[in-house]
């Protein structure tokens, strides 16, 4: 494993290794000195072309807890606003000696391009690309589920809402399938992507029938910034049919947990009562995110550099 | 730990293994180490045993069990994984982490580190760094089942099961029933 571009690239063995490593690293957060010397002298660049609070801070905290040096780059206030291309930005970062580039980009496939075009020698970690993937989010979700439910084999995970625009849903569907869970996507027909029938999931238009057998309900944010057409008649109707309120939550099995990748639209896809309920693990997801990202950084950067001949030759320079 | 790792990787080499300690030798050595630790520290008050994974943890648990009998109170051994503190991380692909379990606060305790083989001393150097990030013990002592020499750092053991003069081409392998099928200390390779 040289890069982390897609949750679908991970074998079950690799995914479990990341989750097991994160399990050990979680305890670092409760120590008096929340730091390990492992990545001392390594440089990690946060390359964010899109707004983000928790993912960027989470990666920054993870890298710093491993003693790496972190350079934050956001498109706003940088030469990108003067028209610099991804390639030139990447070459600049390479010249500064970045060992890992954590990239979030509004275009799907940008991290893949960065990893395979030999613009940078470092490891590339996808922190969300367009409507494509967000693999570390899927890993932290799986990690959170595993801590509450044990092994995920045969568990039922229901992912509800704006699947069409959600990189979280795609990464989760791929990873959870690898880990042996059964994924059901629930969304209005207009918010399911083309080709969803080829995903390793079931789909449904009816939330009420899916909640009763769910071990996990994951609510997705309605992404208003990506809504360039009328996907549903009104926010109120969406909320009635696909929102999670107390009545629906009470129909979940007793052990089931409620998740949300954040940021939440309270009152839209999830009511405030549910978001703040004991069964909601939303705040815990954020804590676990740091441990999972530490695990990813350690496994990509902590050991000897792999011979990268076979992984980089497929990219055209 | 490092030494036994190397040995397990060299297992495919068809070298004759010599058993230098059998199960009864190991049991006697651990009983003696238990008493030495208690004698040196005048009892088990403020003592905390921490094993270094994998086999150091098994040994620490065995010593804790013996100590509980002698002292007539329950003593629990912990585990201290040192992977993230190793100085040779960049020589090999990223390693899996072992479990760290610190049963109680180490501040002002006498921590006894337990490992199977003392060789270069680099594992212990890493363990001291790891302890430093967890707290400030009153003292740190080291107990090992086998000291095979060839130190690369100024580190020594306080309690030794067996001093085993070896040549650098030889591999020392500690096998314990918790991980392996038998209790034995073996030397492989070399023609000494």
Task: Report on this structure.
- The complex is a heterodimer of chains A (317) and B (192).
- Chain A has helices at 12-25, 54-65, 86-95, 110-116, 135-149, 167-178, 207-211, 235-242, 246-249, 272-275, 282-301, 309-312; strands at residues 43-48, 69-74, 100-105, 123-129, 156-160, 182-186, 202-204, 216-219, 257-259.
- Chain A has 317 residues and is α/β, with parallel strands linked by helices.
- Chain A folds into 2 domains: 7-132 and 286-310, Aspartate/ornithine carbamoyltransferase (Rossmann fold); 135-281, Aspartate/ornithine carbamoyltransferase (Rossmann fold).
- In chain A, strand 3 (100-105), helix 4 and strand 4 form a beta-alpha-beta unit.
- Mean pLDDT of chain A is 91; it is low at 307-317.
- Chain B is α/β, with parallel strands linked by helices and 192 residues long.
- Chain B has a single domain, classed as Rossmann fold.
- Chain B is built from 4 helices and 8 strands.
- The longest helix of chain B is centred in the first third of the chain and has 18 residues, at 23-40.
- Chain B is globular, with a radius of gyration of 16 Å.
- Chain A binds chain B through residues 17, 20-21, 24-25, 27, 31-33, 35-38, 298-304, 306, and chain B through 81, 84-85, 89-100, 129, 133-135.
């Amino acid at each position: 494993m040289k890069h982390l571009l897609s949750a679908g690239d991970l074998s079950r063995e690799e995914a479990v290794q990341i989750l097991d490593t994160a399990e050990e690293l979680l305890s670092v957060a409760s120590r008096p000195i929340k730091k390990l010397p492992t990545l001392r002298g390594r440089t990690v660049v946060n390359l964010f072309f899109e707004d983000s609070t928790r993912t960027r801070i989470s990666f920054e905290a993870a890298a710093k807890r491993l003693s790496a040096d972190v350079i934050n780059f956001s498109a706003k206030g940088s030469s990108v606003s003067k028209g610099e291309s991804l390639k030139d930005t990447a070459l600049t970062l390479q010249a500064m000696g970045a060992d890992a580039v954590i990239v979030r980009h509004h275009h799907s496939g940008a991290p893949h391009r960065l990893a395979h075009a030999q613009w940078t020698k470092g490891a590339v970690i996808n922190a969300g690309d367009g409507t494509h993937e967000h693999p570390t989010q899927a890993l932290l979700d799986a990690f959170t589920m595993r801590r509450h439910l044990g092994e995920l084999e045969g568990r039922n995970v229901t992912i509800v809402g704006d699947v069409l625009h959600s990189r979280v849903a795609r990464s989760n569907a791929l990873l959870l399938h690898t880990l042996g869970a059964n994924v059901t996507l629930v969304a209005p027909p207009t918010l399911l992507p083309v080709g969803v029938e080829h995903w390793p999931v079931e789909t449904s238009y009816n939330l009420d029938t899916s909640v009763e057998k769910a071990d996990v309900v994951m609510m997705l944010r309605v992404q208003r910034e990506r809504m360039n057409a009328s996907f549903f008649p009104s926010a109120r109707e969406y909320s009635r049919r696909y929102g999670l309120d107390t009545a629906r939550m009470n129909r979940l099995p007793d052990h089931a947990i409620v998740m949300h990748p954040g940021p939440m639209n309270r009152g839209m896809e999830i009511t405030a009562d549910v978001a703040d309920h004991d069964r909601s693990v939303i705040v815990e997801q954020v804590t676990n995110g740091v441990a999972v990202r530490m695990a990813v950084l350690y496994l990509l950067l902590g050991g000897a550099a792999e011979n990268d001949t076979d992984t980089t030759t497929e990219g055209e320079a | 730990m490092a030494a036994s790792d190397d040995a397990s990787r060299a297992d495919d080499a068809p070298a004759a293994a010599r058993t230098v300690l059998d199960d009864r030798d190991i049991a006697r050595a651990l009983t003696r180490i238990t008493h030495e630790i208690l004698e040196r520290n005048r009892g088990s008050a403020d003592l905390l045993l921490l094993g270094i994974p994998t086999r150091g943890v098994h040994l620490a648990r065995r010593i804790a069990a013996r100590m509980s009998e002698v002292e007539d109170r329950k003593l629990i051994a912990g585990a201290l994984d040192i992977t993230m503190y190793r100085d040779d991380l960049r020589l090999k692909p990223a390693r899996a982490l072992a479990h760290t379990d610190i049963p109680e606060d180490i501040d002002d305790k006498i921590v006894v580190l337990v490992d199977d083989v003392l060789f270069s001393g680099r594992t212990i150097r890493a363990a001291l760094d790891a302890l430093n990030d967890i707290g400030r013990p009153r003292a740190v002592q080291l107990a090992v089942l086998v000291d095979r020499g060839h130190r690369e750092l100024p580190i020594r053991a306080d309690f030794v099961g067996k001093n085993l003069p070896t040549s650098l081409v030889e591999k020392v392998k500690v096998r314990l029933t918790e991980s392996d099928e038998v209790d034995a200390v073996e030397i492989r390779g070399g023609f000494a």
